[in-house]
Design goal:
Blueprint (H helix, E strand, L loop, with lengths): L5 H29 L1 H23 L2 H11 L4 H30 L6 H6 L1 H8 L3 H6 L3 H22 L6 H18 L4 H5 L13 H28 L3 H38 L2 H38 L4 H10 L2 H16 L5 H26 L1 H22 L8 H27 L2 H14 L3 H27 L3 H21 L1
Amino acid sequence: MGKKSIARNYIYNMVYQVLILVLPLITTPYLSRVLGAEGIGIYSYTYAIVTYFILFGSLGVALYGQREIAYAQDNVEVRGKTFFEILIFRFITIFTSIIIYFFLFMNGEKYQLYYRILLLELVAAAFDISWFFQGIEEFKRTVTRNVLVRICSVTLVFVFVKTREDLAKFTLIYSLADLIGNLSLWLYLPRYLKGIRVRNINVVQHIPQIVLLFIPQIANQIYKILDTTMIGKIVDDKTETGFYEQGQKVIRLLLTIVTSLGIVMIPRMANTFASGDKKKINEYLKMSFKFVFFLSFPLMFGISVVASNFVPVFFGLGYDKVVVLIRIICPIVLLMGIGNVVGTQYLLPTKRQKEYTISVTIGLVVNFFLNYFLINKYKSIGASIATVLSELVVILVQLRLINDDFDVRCLFELSHKYITASVIMFLVCLISKAMLNMNIFSRGIMNLAIRLDINYDFMFNIFSIVVQVLLGVITYITTLIILKDDSIIKLIDKIKSALHLKKDATL
């Protein structure tokens, strides 16, 4: 099997991951107003509970399966045998999780209706085989089939969710979308399993490695949803959970853009590790770090500037606290980007689960204690602070663990141009924001709003976002060109070459 383009696979994976987040975000301004912060909070809390059961039922099989399929990428028979063994194991563990979930949450709970609907999420997890296609680096397959399903789910939300009493309908639509999306990938399987004779199925042989990989995965996943769960348990006011969830949605979208390369690099790193090419692994690491720095610094600085304009437009009135939460949480775009490179792209594919487990477990413990003390006092703001501090601890531990294999001192050399360009961009955006508040500009926007019969505040925020984003992008790219950044120069050269080829083709 020929190697797939990393850039092309990144685009496919980013499109899919962004799609998963963007389509719900399209509905968020509507749902924020229709369901309210309390409705969003109830959904976030119950979904977080179900996520624990999906996590325990999956046992980290997705990442393990992706890695094992990548190791056997070019051996069709071994690849097929591995797929069926892992699939059978996943069915058994998810079914066990469903039984436990049924007895604990399907009866007598305050939100039992939503728990019953969310049972579909557990069923969907059982039929998720995206790890197989990721292992063979066929990311296009996981994108094309799910686009239609996701778009349909958004359409159904606008059609059927009209009042606060429609929270159950909203939950059902999204759960069915996940189930149908996962089932749709099975239609592609015959092409890759055709002619395979599966003999001597041995599910048990995978258990030790799955358990070893499950430990860091469970710690990492609990770490991700611990904040929402603890806010829901500690704070009676579910609007705090809703505020925190809305702030996280924005940051998760930015994170998706930054970390989408990680899923693409896992099979490539695993395959390179299997061939023993340490030099190539080091090159891939530097490439990934540069990519993270190139995107994370401007996204982090940019969202902190536009948050005050973005939140009222996107979420509506009553979500002012989300502005503060976004500004507190935004550093994790950089921190989790680095963690994705070190942990997901390097430690796990190279079978260094122990080091990864140590770092994530330390972060989980720190996060729990910080949450306990800070949420009690500062509610969702406390959870946001805890998230950033605990993520910083994880990164520091991971960088220390890989220092013998990778010179972490080169990170400053890889990042200093992007830091400089982002700071300049940040200052330009702040100046433009201040100028827009001047009377001469505000009067012009007011006149335009009156002519278009649009609310002035809404019009001003939209105009401010557009101006700041355009100026920010132009400033950032221009600064990198002046600093002669290799990535930008190569990108410009590729664009020029493509334009020349297109011009020659028309002659």
